[in-house]
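3.2 Worked example (two chains)
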Amino acid sequence: MKKTTSLLLAATLAGSLFATNAMADAKAGQKYYLKKLKDSKKDGIANGGNFATKHDRDTWAEKKESGELLNAWKEICPSGEKKFDKMKEGDVTDLYDFCWQYASDGDVPSCG
């Protein structure tokens, strides 16, 4: 019984750490958007939520898997094309996590 309880506790702890890391990446993507892409209002995007809700979660995942993620972002935000071209791999992952987390069928972000 004690072994089962310990195993259950360890699994719960591991699951909570994974969820925290996933949210941290979305948070980093939100920060990237606010820092680098806030001037995308020229493209008719009022805020990061509008940017992320251009697609649903499945579409964002398909674009990432097919390698079309940067092109999708450039279509949504043409004024940020140079910034997308200069993105580091970690920034791409973080911004993708933000887009996936706050997609049209996802959560509602609290960013400007």
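3.2.1 Second chain
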Amino acid sequence: MNIITLSLKSLKRKRTRAALTIIGVAVATAALFSLVSFSVGYDRALKKEMQDSGLQMLVSTEGCPTEAASLALHGGEITKYVDEKRLTEVRSIQGVHVATGMLMFSLTEEGGKTSLFSGIDDEIRKLKPYWKLKGSWFKDGSSIILGAEAAKVEERTVGDKIYFPGFDREFNVAGVLQRTGTEDDGFFFLPLKTAQEVFHKQGKLTAIGVNVGDPGRIEKVKEQIEELPDVYVLTADQMMGQILKLVGSSKTLMFAVLAIALIISIVGVLNTVLMSVMEMVKEFGYMRCVGAAGIDVFKIVFLETITVCLIGGIAGALGGSVLSSFADSFIRSVLPYAPAGKMIEFNPVIFVMSIFFAIILGIIAGVYPSIKASKISPMEAIRNE
């Protein structure tokens, strides 16, 4: 009877204990797969969101650049605003290809429903050439354009009317955006002047989005904009850096929890295998009596440990892949800022790496019990009779 057969027979005799150990390893592996996938996917999704925004620079008021960057991408409200005069001044700077004013606001109605609004001007279309519109652009101050998801939720299409009791105003749906896969899908877009009127922010902007075309001109144009009073300028790279810094503590906390889970998993496997070795002292002693070497006993216990962790690793990696949507939603709920798009997607490299890590876990947990088992002598088996 070979060593592999002996290891498998040992596992079959302790099915319940083996199953519980496999579940523990699977949970730890699934968590590892999800968090590593998230860490890789978050940066990718954020970079894509920045590219889709068309922004090379964001001009906000002094004191809240990170908040303005977040709102420019995701919507909401801000406590400080940019004077609309700055928009004209930015547009007059040599090298500025596009400068568009934005006013972001949210409206919470009875029942807790929150709607996101964005006041925009015609220049936004140059930043977002991928926008495909069913219907037309704004016809007048009472026109509204709906993102794809907003139109779906409100059950409105081109030509319909939509009423917002929060500011007692009815609008005509001039157009509906085709789905973009970005945060734009959930917005209600108003003409900038109309948004300033209904939200009582005349002459105010959340931020100014700037595109200079040639990336080589960014720093030069940035320096000129910074000469304007009461403004703060962030480049796209700086916006990414600010947002990554904002979520850095959350990432650190999640990986700290993962580290604790992995340590607990190692201790659990170690404890299970040690108990198994203690229960099989007599059996290992008899094996030594009939000629088995210590290395043979070592291989049996070690292979048993690796098998349990391998099965748990495969199950955990598969489980993490299947439950990626749930993990994505959960992680979004605990992050201060989450980009649009899926952050956790199946990645074959991370999948294999997670299984390999489970095997490493088995190696760490299996060495000591295997050495202990290999040192059992025939005399110990006799003493346990």
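3.3 Remarks
The longest strand covers residues 98-108.
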